Amino acid sequence: VAGVSGVLLGLVVLTGWAADIEALRRTSPGLVPVNPMAALALVLAGASLRLQCAAPAVATGRRLARLCAAAVLGAGAFTLASYAFGWSPGVDQVLFAEKLTRDDPSLPSRMAPNAAVNFVFVGLALLLLDVTSPRGRRLSEVLTLAALFVSLHALVGHAYGVRWNYGAPTFVPMALQPAAAFLLLTLGILAARPRRGLTGIVTGDTLGGALARRLLPAMVLTLLVLGWLFLEAERRGIYGAALGVSLYAVANIVIFAALVVWGARSLIIADKARERVEAEGQRFFTLSRDLLCIAGFDGYLKRVNPAWEGALGFTREELLARPFLDFVHPDDRAAALTQAQKAEVGATIPPYENRYRCADGTYRWFLWSATPVPDEGLIYATARDITERKLMEVALLSSRDVLETRVHERTAELLESEERVRRANLELEQRVQERTAELETANKELEAFSYSVSHDLRAPLRHVQGYVEMLAAATAGELPDKARRYLKIITEASVEMGQLIDDLLAFSRMGRGKLRERRVDVDELVREVVRGMGMDTRDRLITWKFAALPAVLGDAAMIKQVLANLIGNAVKYTRGRDPAVIEIGCAGEQDGRVVLFVRDNGAGFDMQYVHKLFGVFQRLHRAEEFEGNGIGLASVRRIVARHGGRVWAEGLPGKGAVFHFTLKAAAPKPADIHEREEGTARP
Amino acid sequence: VLIPRRRILFVDDSTRDTELALDALEAYHVANEVVALRDGADALDYLYRRGSFADRPDEAPTLILLDLKMPKVDGLEVLRQIKGDARLKTIPVVVMTSSREEQDLVTSYRLGVNAYVVKPVKFQEFVEAVRQLGAFWMLCNEPPPRAAGEGA
User: Fold this and answer.
1) For an engineered disulfide with A466, which of A479, A658, B20, B135 has Cβ 3.0 to 4.6 Å away?
2) Tell me: the pLDDT tens digits for B132-151?
3) SS3 letters for chain B?
4) Which residues, 6 or more positions from A275, have their beta carbon under 8 angstroms from its beta carbon?
5) Rounded distance, CA A12 to CA A134, Å?
């Protein structure tokens, strides 16, 4: 804005000169007109400032700005030189030369010397605005300030109506417009780089900046206004010069004192706030259980919080007295040094871990976070004590080792016990083989026994029968009837004995033979058995009752033997019943086995002899009543037992008997039991 | 008509069985001559004409009825020697025994027995079996030519 207004002001004055408009050349008729060269310099200075403030600094713009600044500097310098060496007309009189002397030839419109000085200052300041060296910048600032004061002085002079201080009496005084333009320009130059130098102080976000912003305008305004007031009062003769100055001094004192007190108060308030914040920070610093520190790039700790003393056992003084690397575990030193070097170049340091020595010689683990501040040559760091975690990690690792070892041991044990089991199995197998061999031997012996029984017992029988026969033949017709009856009985007895031997052999074979288990259709077996009863059921009235029987698992031939024996018994012991009723059925399940039964309404038996029923050669009826040798039921029990089942009987003398036996069920669900009449068999 | 001598060699340690068998064979006129021997040793002596049979005429029997279970040399051994001898193996050998054991049956047939008969327990059946055996082998069956045995 200052740049643009400078340009505009200069242009307006130049236009005034060009178009001969007096109103534009001077602000009021009593005032000096603005020199056109000064106006041109103003335009150039404003343009330079404007260009240097352009947001994206373009190289050509910059160069142009420098050029303008140089031109401004040149204009000022040449004008000064022309004053100094008494050149006339001077450089400032080149433009509109004939118009300059028109009004007052004795006092031509020239550029005021102070204005020329100001142009030198401003030109230099603009040139030096962006130099890299802090000194150049400082110079630019000082020059700007000087120009500011010069223009301010001219302005105040105008305001207070002082004539002499426009310049030396022989010189042309500075016009009002350039003075205002200089003020604006210099303020603009100061504001052009708001973040540095004096401007930085005033505009900064600091306590000082705030104070400056408050005090400066107040002071400037108050002093100017007061000065003018007292001057006016004095001029109007209200009081004399001495009184005026003293009043002015007192007023100044009062106002300054007020301003100082005001500033002090705001400082105190701000200070208190800052103190509170600092105390907060200090409290956290003291309170923190993490280790907080500030270390210098020189390798020494500068400040540590009390947590350090607690953690390491060293006093603060001890910690600060030696390079901090002395406290780092020897193994971690290299890494710590690397971190410190990184910090010195301002690189960010990622969190890292290391060990610090304690006063008792032990080490503690810390997790570090550090931020370097290279400007201050300091590193700010916090450290968390992670010794417990580290110990736990170590403990975990070692317990994992222990566990692994244990797993290994356990595995070895398992393998060993497996080996033992394997060996035991082998032994067992061997023993089973031995036992099997023994059993096979025993079986062979039994077989040899039954062989000799069949061979050796039968031969004498044959001989008995043979010789009886021969005797009968030899004594044909000579023997009395009685003797012939004896011979007949001898023959019958020997036949019986032969049968007995056969049955016994069959019985013994039954216990030894292999059991060929498979699915057996009991219904079918029953039908076969009943069909085979042809001879025994001839001329008999028998009512058969067959239930649907479930299939079972077992040796078909043996189960058929069981059925044959039981049904044969039923047929035999119902002799004389009219009708005989024989029922074959299933009585559900017991211990997962099918219970089958054969019931008759025959002779029955006395339950007190039931224990003898299934013994070999045990008979409950006399041979004259019912033939038989007492092998049948023994065979039944033996077969059922070999199938893992059991057999039992109930009976009532003269009423009948029922024989139960159990067999493994072949189908999971036994068929429904229902009675069905097969009619009365009378072949 | 000259009827060739039909001789049966009956080898059985049971004198009673022998007597019953001889009675049966005699009753049905199956053979001209039945030589009854008590054990395997005697049988081999007879066949090889040694010991007490050294002087017997050189004439092989038409049929040998052989019991298995005998003292000294048992029936199976006798059978083995007969069937292993080129001169003797053409003579039909019928094992007649009380044993129904599978092992005996298998061994006998492997050695080349011509028939295997289990002695029936009942006397009548026994007599009938002996008669049928004699009739079949002595009357129905054509024996090998005399030279066959020596030539083979």
Assistant:
1) B20
2) 888 888 888 888 776 544 43
3) CCCCCCEEEEECCCHHHHHHHHHHHHHCCCCCEEEEECCHHHHHHHHCCCHHHCCCCCCCCCEEEECCCCCCCCHHHHHHHHHCCCCCCCCCEEEEECCCCHHHHHHHHHHCCCEEEECCCCHHHHHHHHHHHHHHHHHHCCCCCHHHHHHC
4) none
5) 37
Strand partners, A369: A382
Of A105 and B142, more confident? B142
pLDDT tens digits along A586-639 = 988 888 899 999 999 988 888 888 888 888 777 777 777 777 777 888 889 989
Region label for A656, one of left (φ > 0), alpha (ψ between -120 and 50) or beta (otherwise): left
Residues A523-546 have pLDDT tens digits of 989 998 888 887 777 788 888 998
pTM of the prediction? 0.39
What tens digit of pLDDT does each residue of B30-81 get?
777 889 998 899 999 999 998 888 888 878 888 999 998 888 888 999 999 9
Q: Percentage of residues in chain B with pLDDT exceeding 70?
A: 92
- The residue type of A128 is L
* Cβ count near A638 (within 10 Å): 20
Rounded to a whole number of angstroms, the distance from the CA of B128 to the nearest CA of chain A is 12
**CB contact A474 to B (< 8 Å):** no
Strand order in the sheet with B33-37: B33-37, B7-11, B63-66, B93-97, B115-118
CB atoms near residue A218 (< 10 Å): 15
Distance CA A665, CA A670 (A): 7
- Contact list, B71 vs chain A (CB under 8 Å): none
What the block records as the tokens of A593 is 């086995």
A572-582 as b/e: b if 16+ CB within 10 A:
bbbeebeebbb
Q: Using the predicted structure, report yes or no on whether residue A92 has a pLDDT greater than 90.
A: no
**ipTM (interface predicted TM):** 0.73
Residue of chain B nearest A474, judged by CA positions: B23
With an 8 Å Cβ cutoff, are A458 and B121 in contact?
yes
Nearest to A462 among B23, B100, B123 (CB): B123
Point out the residue among A454, A455, A465 whose CB comes nearest to the CB of B123. Answer: A465
- Which among B17, B99, B127 has CB closest to A451? B99
Give the percent of chain A with pLDDT over 90: 12
Q: How far apart are CA A172 and CA B81, in angstroms?
A: 174
Question: Average pLDDT for residues A286-298, to the nearest whole number?
Answer: 88
Retrieve residue A596's tokens. Answer: 């089958």
Chain B within 8 Å of A450 (Cβ-Cβ)?
no
C-alpha dihedral over B20, B26, B27, B28, to 10 degrees?
A: 120
* DSSP state string for A21-41: -HHHH-SSTTSPPPPHHHHHH
Cα(A545)–Cα(A585) distance, integer angstroms? 8
Alpha helices in A513-555 (DSSP H): 522-532, 534-537
> What residue of A is the nearest CA neighbor of B18?
A463
Q: Do B20 and A462 touch (CB under 8 A)?
A: yes
CA distance A530 to A679: 13
